[in-house]
Write a structure and sequence with these properties.
By secondary structure, the chain is an alpha/beta fold. About 35% of the residues lie in helices and about 20% in strands. It contains 7 helices and 11 strands. Strands 1-2-3-4-5-6-9-11 form an 8-stranded mixed beta sheet. Strands 8-7-10 form a 3-stranded antiparallel beta sheet, with no helix packed on it. Helix 1 packs parallel to helix 2 and helix 2 packs parallel to helix 3.
């Protein structure tokens, strides 16, 4: 399910409302340091024909044209969302693109939120952290509490370490949104008690202002994956709700 434009939508997001998407990755390929078994964009190996990363000026021009058109047509924009086909912070112009996006948001749709969906692998890089800190909703992923489980679910490139990610997330002092996928596969269960306990300890350590817990919603590249029911997810996270954490669940 690859996007074909640098700026696409707006589309209705179950999490973010009427959302205008920004893809600062290849328009006909995939560019990611994760290769998640549930990724709606498919496997990395199948998206390598196009590796072109749009420059900051290209993104700025495309975004301004779209925002102006939406304003003239009376199309509401609740969120301007960096998603795309992979990890947005891998674009070398990421920081400049974020600055340009915030300026254009203020000009055309000042009430809209700027959101970035990221796998959090590069938060430890100062420039990436600085850019993420500027937006309204840095939505950052941790799907599992151990490197072994992350390897099964996210297939990260070499060098990934959960502890480094957790330590980097602490820099936000809780001002970010944690996103976690819950699912089951032939050789793992991300809802197993020991996995959930480890994940909850991470939540308590980084203390995000909000948590998004969700499950499979679209076709996946890996076979044999099972979604987790909304009722089960509610039961799983109830201890954190009781502790005062704000949790949004999407089945």
């Amino acid at each position: 399910m690859l996007r074909e434009e640098t700026v696409f939508g707006p589309i209705h997001s179950r999490r973010l409302g009427n959302s205008l998407g920004i893809n600062i990755l290849p328009s006909n390929g995939k560019f990611c340091n994760f290769d998640c078994i549930y990724c709606e964009c498919g496997w990395n190996k199948d998206g390598r024909d196009d590796q072109y990363l749009p420059k900051a000026q290209e993104v700025k021009s495309a975004l301004e044209a779209k925002l102006q058109a939406c304003l003239e047509e009376g199309t509401p924009i609740d969120s301007i969302t960096f998603s795309g086909d992979g990890e947005s912070s891998l674009n070398p112009d990421f920081s400049q693109i974020v600055d340009d996006t915030l300026a254009l948001r203020d000009k055309y749709f000042p009430a809209a939120k700027v959101s970035i969906l990221s796998n959090a692998t590069r938060v430890h890089i100062p420039a990436v952290f600085a850019a993420l800190s500027k937006v309204d909703n840095p939505i950052l992923k941790i799907d599992a509490p151990t490197n072994e489980m992350v390897a099964k679910i996210n297939n990260p490139t070499a060098g990934y370490d959960v502890r480094r990610v957790v330590d980097a997330l602490k820099q936000f002092n809780g001002n970010f949104v944690l996103q976690t996928m819950m699912l089951r596969g032939p050789h793992f269960d991300s809802t197993a008690p020991e996995v959930i306990e480890g994940w909850m300890q991470i939540v308590r350590e980084v203390r995000p202002r909000e948590i998004m817990v969700y499950t499979i919603d679209r076709p996946t590249p890996a076979e044999g994956l099972e979604k987790v029911s909304e009722e089960e997810m509610k039961k799983i996270v109830q201890p954190l709700v009781d502790e005062g954490f704000k949790i949004q669940i999407r089945g």
